[in-house]
Amino acid sequence: MAKGLEERVLGLLRGGKLVRKGDRVLVSVSGGKDSAVAAWVLAKRAGELGIDVGLLHIDLGIPGYSEESRAAVEALRERLDAPLHVHEIEKEWGLALPEIARKLKKAPCHVCGTLKRYYQNVLAKELGYNVLATGHNLDDSVGFIVNNFITGQVKQTHKISPLLPETELTSRKIKPLFWIQGRETEGYATEKGIPFTRCSCPFQKQSPTHVIREAFDRVEELRPGAKKSFVKNVLRALPGKGETTSPSACELCGAPTSGKVCTVCRMKKRLWAGGFQLGQQ
Ligand SMILES: [Zn+2]
User: Fold this and answer.
1) What is the pLDDT of residue 273?
2) Residues whose CB is under 5 A from ligand 1 (ion)?
3) Residue 84: in which H helix or E strand, if any?
């Protein structure tokens, strides 16, 4: 099943104009198979694509899982001989992700997603990368779409795309594995001996998106191609496809946000109410 994955990814990178000659591409790597495969294909083909590739890892401080993830990312860096930038949440916040979530009374996956997006945006710009690549795959798109329909955030759905153009505040965002299933990346990673951890996040099973993905795996078995046609048809049916809105700068930290103050600054304000200086990094 993994046969042809690399060609399909390259086809999207070139045909979809995800990367161009001279691009500096930062790949956000979690330690898991998908981002490892995205980094692998981009770094191995960097010469012919005419790009520079760097790796970004956000260490969440989740006991057990984060140590395993960090070790996998270090091993990947060695194999790819690419620069690795690590950002440790606990060093900046004085708290690891589980405590931040507990204190804010928020689901860990929600806080994790918010923090990852924030640091990916901010660090790509800070480190001088004009492209940010993530390991999001076809299963992630299916989960995102279904979840948006369940929670009523349907308006967000049209934003899903293998390519989001650069804005003043954000690097171009690309998803090289947009049409690839998780089981395919696993096969490819195993076949190529790509270092990744099978240790899954302890909070993952609490997430409805995880259950949706499992259900779609079963549908795909009964009807191969179901996931791809689901995503294609939803995107085709949605109004507003291709519309992009430029984010504004957070009044406190300058990060991209849709409001006046970004979610991360609001989280910090709640955590450190009274003793915390806003915008402190
Ligand atoms: Zn902010």
Assistant:
1) 76
2) 250, 252-253, 255, 262, 265
3) strand 84-88
Of 77, 33, 28, residue with least CA distance to 57:
28
Per-residue confidence (pLDDT) for residue 159, from 0 to 100: 81
Question: How much distance in Å is there from the Cα of 48 to the middle of ligand 1?
Answer: 38
Tally of residues, the chain:
281
Question: Cα–Cα distances in Å, from 114 out to 16, 121, 263?
Answer: 27, 11, 7
CB burial string 147-165: b at 16+ within 10 A, e below: bbeeeeeeeebbbbbbbbe
Task: Give the chain's domains with CATH numbers.
Answer: 17-246 (3.40.50.620), 248-281 (no CATH)
- For ligand 1, the distance from its centroid to the CA atom of residue 91, given in whole angstroms, is 18
Report the run of H or E that residue 25 belongs to, with start and end.
strand 24-28
Task: Provide the pLDDT for residue 202.
Answer: 76
Q: How far is the CA of 249 from the centre of ligand 1 (A)?
A: 8
List the structure tokens of 68.
């395993």
Cα of 93 vs centre of ligand 1, distance in Å, is: 14
Provide mean pLDDT across the span 34-38. Answer: 98
| Pick from 171, 132, 170, 164: nearest CA to 39 | 132
CA 79 / ligand 1 centre spacing (Å) = 35
Long-range contacts for 66-72 (Cβ within 8 Å, ≥24 apart)? 66/96, 68/31, 68/197, 68/199, 69/30, 69/31, 69/32, 69/197, 69/199, 70/31, 71/31, 71/197, 72/31, 72/32, 72/36, 72/195, 72/196, 72/197
- At residue 127, does pLDDT exceed 80? yes
3-state secondary structure of 90: helix
Both tokens of residue 188? 């490819």
